[in-house]
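Tutorial sheet, problem 5. The three components below are modelled jointly, 742 residues in total.
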Amino acid sequence: MNPMNYVYLSAVLFSIGAAGVLLRRNAIVVFMCVELMLNACNLAFVTFSRMEGNLDGQVIAFFVMVVAAAEVVVGLAIIVTIVRTRRSASVDGANLLKY
Amino acid sequence: MNSYVPILVLGALSLGFAVFSIAAGHLTGPRRFNRAKLDAYECGIEPTPQPVGGGRFPVKYYLTAMLFIIFDIEIVFLYPWAVSFDALGMFGLVEMGLFILTLLVVYAYVWRRGGLEWD
Amino acid sequence: MNTGLTLAAEFETPSVEYRLLAPMLIVFGVAVAGVLLEAFMPRPFRHETQLGLAVAGLLAAFASVVMLAGDYSVAASGSVAVDGPALFLQGAILLMAIPGVLATAERKVDVGGVFAPAGSSTPGSPAERLLVAEKITQTEVFPLLMFAIGGMLLFPASNDLLTMFVALEVLSLPLYLLCGLARRRRLLSQEASLKYFLLGAYSSAFFLYGVALLYGYAGTVRLSGIAEAVSSEAGNETLLLTGTALLTVGLLFKVGAAPFHSWTPDVYQGAPTPITGFMAACTKVAAFGALLRVLYVGVGGLAWEWEPVIWGIAILTMGVGSVLALTQTDIKRMLAYSSIAHAGFILTGLVGTDAVGADGELLGVSSVLFYLVTYGFSTIGAFAVVTLVRDAAGEATHLSQWAGLARRSPVIAVVFTFFLAAFAGIPLTSGFTAKFAVFSAAWAGDARVLVIIGVIMSAVAAFFYFRVIVLMFFSAPAPDGPSVVVPSPLTTVAIAIGAAVTLLLGVFPTYVLELAGLASQFVR
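Model answer (structure tokens):
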């Protein structure tokens, strides 16, 4: 199978995540969409790694996973604080800062 | 410059399509509102009743989950190191020792600040 | 395509040059030590110890940057470049971080400091009131700041895109948290934190997908490898162009350039003010450093393709920043739009790729380096002044509350006027020399239209700075207006450092300009 198809799949996943960030209203779901984007990147890295014949891409995927986990922790901490304050995780609710 | 022409054409097409479909929907579609349209879509049936406010569970689960993720994921660095332990030798051992030491500092912090206590 | 066997044969043990990485290692070491202090030191001693440790660490790191000067090479198996721009920016970040940290540590202006006693406590809850009554000071901000500074040191020095991505996250994650910890106006602060986090994570995903595509193009994430692939015109051009575009989006988000600026005003307004100053100065320096390295070293062979884009973005950024700043009624928001406008001016200098000075220095790089230093110090000083104008609810940031400030505190009004004059680019302030440098670099790089637009935009921008000055000096103060608090020496020193550098670089810019010129060559 042509490995380029995996790159197309990763582009599709990335676009779904990017659209999700813009369209969804719940902070947790927005955040899950960002994670989907990061994992789409991982798929692209691993595929290119196989196509190029070197292991760099796979090592990068490890680093991305760790960074994503750190991001999850910071993000969840922020979102949980907001939920406890406002009793809602909607990104539309956070509208005190504008113009 | 030629390599940009397809991008421009695609951009124009997608813009046109977006404008067309929004305008067409606006002009031709009937406007009938009912409650079902405002509900979350769940396979075409009435959504299952949820607890009031979506249901809550203790925030402690999040804390534990966060701590678990952050300590658990660091293991991905240990596997490649273990596989190439012979080739990396003393250098790898020292670097990995420093890495684990940093994690231990964080662990000590979590423990001292009460992150591991359930109550 | 069995890769495992071929790779085992060419395995080479990686190396870490601790001496070359000393500035970053010192800062990260101090950060880790700070975490340990938080765990084991009794609370009453923490604040002073953490502050002393942080400042000592920054000074030691700066000393090691100075010792490395002139000794250019790559470290850590080629993933970190220790060269002129990297060392210059590292030195700048460390020097700016010192007033930044001092202003952050202020405890006299607001009893207990600018941060909430515990970030996790719900605003207005009995638990929070108890903590406030006990006058508990948040000290975890010091390790967080040091981690952010460490990431900022690594960001402009990263010689491969993976290191750059990790540095980006290391500098961003602590900043997301610091934004949400303000003592006053907790809801605004938490909202700023959420927005910054979601948009920051979104942009770093774009950055990462750009890295993935460039890896697919060149087979390596090393900047020099990508440059080689570009010059040999091997590989798939679509991957290269799309990858570069996505990567640039991620970086332009961090510098706050339009159309990726929408987070800037919200975050700058909501974050605790000393953090805003620190973030505005140091993040911008680090992110422009990384942008310079990617555009000049990585895809320098593609300059013909990206220069027009940066052109457009520079014009848009200057326009959006200058025009929208006119409509602001909040001083922090106004400074945020001013920071967007400044990002546009800096991008102007970046366009002068083929401008070479008399001694062979790259004018595009050296003017950007110089501009970053001047802008950073003025910004930290200006935001530190904002923390001093207060009423019962905390900082009085609405512009109408600043009316007639000169009658309440002539000194503060004069100092703030000086910073605003520097932002506007009035002669005898550092802002003038910096604007002159970037515009002449762009002029030498044949971007004349851009320079003319830049000059017009700085005139527009000057208008809203002068509106504030007129408001402070020639309006009658409101009867229940805010008062100007006399701060502890910490904030005073921070403001003094900002003002002194702004004046020095305005009157005697030669030395730093020459230094920036000497430091304008990248190691490849």
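Marking note: Chain A touches chain C through 51 residues (CB under 8 Å). Full credit if you identified this.
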